[in-house]
Amino acid sequence: MTATFPTDISGEALHKDIRISEFGAQKALGILQSSGKENAGVRVFIKSGGCSGYQYGMAIDDRELEGDTIVVDRGVKLLVDRMSIDLLRGCEVDFVENMMGGGFTVNNPNATSSCGCGHSFRTDGAQSPDGEGSGGCGSH
């Protein structure tokens, strides 16, 4: 069963499993509109790997899968699979720009340590899953 959470009149999620910043929403809406996919959203997921144990992933997705948590925040549909939601609960998707370019990032209150590159993280001091993620930032 897919879980969908209501939004208030401004489109901000009332249930805060995951949310998106104002700037992140502006960037995501532009990308979603140009994707050509009707009713598409941003799928945010976790996979094993990276230098700290887990790695973030994002993709444009027009499918709602069994067990997905779906949150509409600031007009952006965020989709999270059932395996990733516990590690992403309370997170905020943001877009950052710096001298090296720009991109989406995840501000994760569940991460107890993260890689210097910001693409991978570990929770509660646990070892990397399956012994992965010990090779430094170049191992993504």
UniProtKB/TrEMBL annotation:
<dbReference type="Pfam" id="PF01521">
    <property type="entry name" value="Fe-S_biosyn"/>
</dbReference>
<protein>
    <submittedName>
        <fullName>Putative Iron-sulfur cluster biosynthesis protein IscA, putative HesB/YadR/YfhF protein family</fullName>
    </submittedName>
</protein>
<dbReference type="InterPro" id="IPR016092">
    <property type="entry name" value="ATAP"/>
</dbReference>
<feature type="domain" description="Core">
    <location>
        <begin position="27"/>
        <end position="118"/>
    </location>
</feature>
<dbReference type="InterPro" id="IPR017870">
    <property type="entry name" value="FeS_cluster_insertion_CS"/>
</dbReference>
<dbReference type="InterPro" id="IPR035903">
    <property type="entry name" value="HesB-like_dom_sf"/>
</dbReference>
<dbReference type="GO" id="GO:0016226">
    <property type="term" value="P:iron-sulfur cluster assembly"/>
</dbReference>
<dbReference type="GO" id="GO:0051537">
    <property type="term" value="F:2 iron, 2 sulfur cluster binding"/>
</dbReference>
<dbReference type="InterPro" id="IPR000361">
    <property type="entry name" value="ATAP_core_dom"/>
</dbReference>
<dbReference type="GO" id="GO:0051539">
    <property type="term" value="F:4 iron, 4 sulfur cluster binding"/>
</dbReference>
<dbReference type="GO" id="GO:0005506">
    <property type="term" value="F:iron ion binding"/>
</dbReference>
